[in-house]
Amino acid sequence: MVAERVREDLVKAARMYFLDGASQQEIASVLGTSRSNVSRMLAAAREQGIVEIRIIDGTERRDTLEAELKQRFGLHDCQVAAHTPGSTPAQTVSKLSSQWLLDNIQDGQRLALSWGTALQAMVWSVTASRQYDVEVVQLVGGLSAVDAGVTGQELVRELATRLGARYRYLHAPALVANLGAVEAFLSERSVSSALDAAKSADIAFVGVGTYGDSSSAAIIDAMALSPADRAELDAMSPAGDICARYYDINGAPVASRAVHDHVIAVDLDDLRRVPMVVGVTSGRVKAPGLVGALRGGHLDVLICDEAAARAALALDAATPRLGTEGM
Q1: What is the SS3 assignment for 160?
Q2: How many angstroms separate the most distant Cα atoms in the chain?
Q3: 250-276: per-residue pLDDT in tens?
Q4: Between β-strands 240-242 and 209-210, what pairing exists: parallel, antiparallel or unpaired?
Q5: Residue 32 Ramachandran class (φ > 0 left, ψ -120 to 50 alpha, else beta)
Q6: In this structure, are residues 118 and 281 in contact, taking their beta carbons and an 8 Å threshold?
Q7: Can you list the domains of the chain with their CATH numbers?
Q8: What would the pLDDT profile of 168-224 be if each residue is shown by its tens digit?
């Protein structure tokens, strides 16, 4: 009788996790046990044949584009999703990026996330079969100017829940109008320690923005720059941003203090020191931001769709790199 009840609990835990999408903590609350025990129950369900997992990878990849991007920009890895009828580019890229995450993270690591719709899709595609001993942290503060569902805090919490991991918030907004307030936030131990944790991440997952488009444009609008400051920024020809840090088509940071000094996030130099930075994006419109990020060496791994890949390669070929004009 005891063995039968145990099996019933294993079936219930497996059904809630794999079919209903419940987190391990939610299952633990229902069953009156610990999250770590739920992880063991799920493993036991697989061992006893209660759960059978089949991997059907319906995401076709473009090997030629992957090889060209790796060779041209010296990437550690690159995955390019082919167009799949019935799926959006964001959906195909989210499948590749979430699987890359599960294939590469290791216990004891620290993962850092920026924000945005591409990372939101990635996080919601993550389905872990075990609990990971990792910590998930934010690269950039909360962004009130965009949908709350794509902000750093929401994504960090959701990913940690799906991995059975720990997480740490960066208790500060991304954008602060008053410089005195920025300094006050940075002087807070909780904020400075959270930023230090992000800087010491083992893997960082970042979205890639294009200047003037979508959320990248929303950041600039939220800054409420004066006409003079906005004209100065436009004159610097920003191409894109990562973590609300803007750079030009060659990847050089845009030196606008009116923008840089009002953002609470790691900067591009901090990001460069992270051992593995993974860029996740899709769409032709991302080409300028993507080319700048690749030329600047801000990414070690790129996961995108074929439209973004082809557009980026074409733009790179058509746009002289710094110091190559006339060659």
Answers
A1: helix
A2: 82
A3: 999 998 888 888 889 999 999 999 999
A4: antiparallel
A5: left
A6: yes
A7: 1-48 (1.10.10), 63-318 (3.40.50.1360)
A8: 999 988 888 777 888 899 999 999 999 999 999 999 999 999 998 877 777 787 777
User: What token pair was written down for 31?
Assistant: 């069953």
CA distance 207 to 209: 7
Sheet strands (E) in the chain: 77-81, 110-113, 135-138, 166-168, 203-207, 209-210, 240-242, 245-247, 276-280, 301-305
DSSP class of residue 285?
A: G
Residues in Cβ contact with 247 at an 8 Å cutoff, skipping those fewer than 6 apart: 238, 239, 240, 241, 253, 254, 268, 292, 293, 296, 298
Would you state the structure tokens that stand for residue 202, as one six-digit string?
């083992």
Q: Is the distance from CB of 268 to CB of 298 less than 8 angstroms?
A: yes
The Cα-based distances of 73 to 84, 123, 297, 318 in angstroms read 26, 26, 8, 15
| C-alpha atoms less than 13 angstroms from C-alpha of 67 in its C-beta half-sphere | 3
Token digits of residue 18: 């794999």
Which residue type is seen at 285? V
